[in-house]
Amino acid sequence: MSTPIPQPPGVPLLGNIFDIDPNNTWASLKKLSEKYGEIFQIKVLGQTLVFVAGAALAEELSDEKRFRKFVGGPIVEIRYAVHDALFTAYEREASWGIAHRIIAPELTPRSVSERFSEMRDATNELIAKWKTLGTNNTISAIGELNKLNLEATTLTLYGKKLNCLDAPEHPMIKGMEDSTSEAMKRPTRPALLNWLWYGGKFKAATKTMRAYASELVQHRKANPTERRDVLAALMSAQDPETGTALTDSQVIDEIVSMPIGSSTAPALLATSIHFLLKNPHVIVKAREELDAVVGSEELTYAHLADLKYVEGIVRESLRLSFAAPGFNIEPIPKDDDKSPVLLGGGRYQIAHNQAVIVVLAGVNRDPTVFEEPLAFKPERMMGGAFDGLPAGVKKWFGNGKRECIGKHWAWQFNMTVLAKLITEVDFEMADPGYELEQDGWFNLRPVDFYVKVKPRAS
Ligand code: HEM
Question: Which terms does the record give in the GO molecular function aspect (predicted)?
């Protein structure tokens, strides 16, 4: 006998519309996951939405023999900007496999390691800028790290120095913000209103992002190079399986998608700074490790593998920030079989075609897996303790074949930036009473989190 999936009471006709804040959907889902636990559902205008917020069910949904990525809602909306790119392609579209086989070789740990010095030097530039700000500065952690991320992404993947660290915010950052916020909100509004009232914003943001990408293509054409990077692959590689190359428009689609994906990294790092400030003993321990491993040398790629405690900080920040807040799964359709899909050994059942949204705020803090799930403890993310954790709580990069293609880039970037910041900078909360609040669209970042930065006291 299956148990009904818990659901908040709701109101007649409109259902659970008031349980979700369209301006901060993920905060509403976090709250619901705290109340209802491993699984819950809501009904909005007759449509059922199911959410999984527990580790065991998340692991079950990771079985690629039974489930696959669901391309729906906001992901379909953002196709207006990037069409059938990696992140947005439907299962049936051959373009996913073609682009994946063309891009993946440029994002292996080895390929990404060749870009280490570019990442580190961009981070050094940001720190050097901060050192000129004087003692009484206040900066937005996410604002500064968004700039660093765009600078590093553009340089490492596309070979162009944007020089955006010390400049007003690059238009690409607002383009990504506007397009992703619009993609999240459109499914909640009547189509006519989207078209009449909000179409202009979506169009303008798309134009900005595609102009950023076109300039990179033009720059490469005007400056031919032997450099092997993602842009080189996009523009000239052929899929080894089919011999197909990407069209000019697909090249732009993929160039735009990568910074949207990588903007999760600064969201993670900004939240990590908050966790560090709330846990000063972690900074002390990380500095002991950094002093022992790196000492007074400049950080190199070889050091990263020995920074196990810093890696614990990155992983614990991934767990508690849920910087990528979730992902969507659906049962793999079976010909003519419309019987319900059972979850949890029959404990729950969902319709054969029911999409499920995995809410990482619930999964990553599952109290059946973690003692003191809200505490920030890098030690549990190291060595045997980390290896022993169930697979369901390590889904911060998504799952299976649609797992994040930038995960090695993200690991290297997060490790490099955190190692440099912890080594060289003392942060202080601008408002000592600040408590973490998050919002976001395709990623979650701290709201109104300002810090003062100073060179590390000797
Ligand atoms: C901390 C950093 C990051 C996190 C937590 C993260 C998380 C994720 C997650 C959860 C997915 C799966 C989405 C889904 O199933 O719908 C995903 C996919 C993706 N990510 Fe990331 N990501 C990060 C950084 C990056 C970076 C640096 C890039 C680019 C260099 C990137 C590019 C992508 C792309 C293109 C996809 C779609 C892959 C596909 O479907 O084939 N991400 N990411």
Answer: heme binding; iron ion binding; monooxygenase activity; oxidoreductase activity, acting on paired donors, with incorporation or reduction of molecular oxygen
Q: Could you tell me which of 212, 323, 322, 223 has the C-alpha nearest to residue 265?
A: 323
265 lines ligand 1 (CB under 6 A): yes
Tokens at residue 46, please?
């007759």
Residue 83: pLDDT above 80? yes
- Which listed CATH number (3.90.550.10, 1.10.260.40, 3.50.50.60, 1.10.630.10) goes with 17-451? 1.10.630.10
Q: Where are the alpha helices (DSSP H) in 14-93?
A: 25-36, 55-61, 73-77, 79-82
How far apart are alpha carbons 138 and 163 in whole angstroms?
21
Query: Would the annotation count 404 as a binding residue?
Result: yes
How far apart are the CA of 45 and the centre of ligand 1, in A? 31
Task: Please report, for the chain, the start and end positions of each structural domain, with discontinuous segments joined by +.
Answer: 17-451
At 391-429, the pLDDT tens digits run 999 999 999 999 999 999 999 999 999 999 999 999 999
Ligand 1 near 410 CB (within 6 A) = yes
Give this prediction's pTM: 0.97
Q: How far is the CA of 260 from the centre of ligand 1 (A)?
A: 9
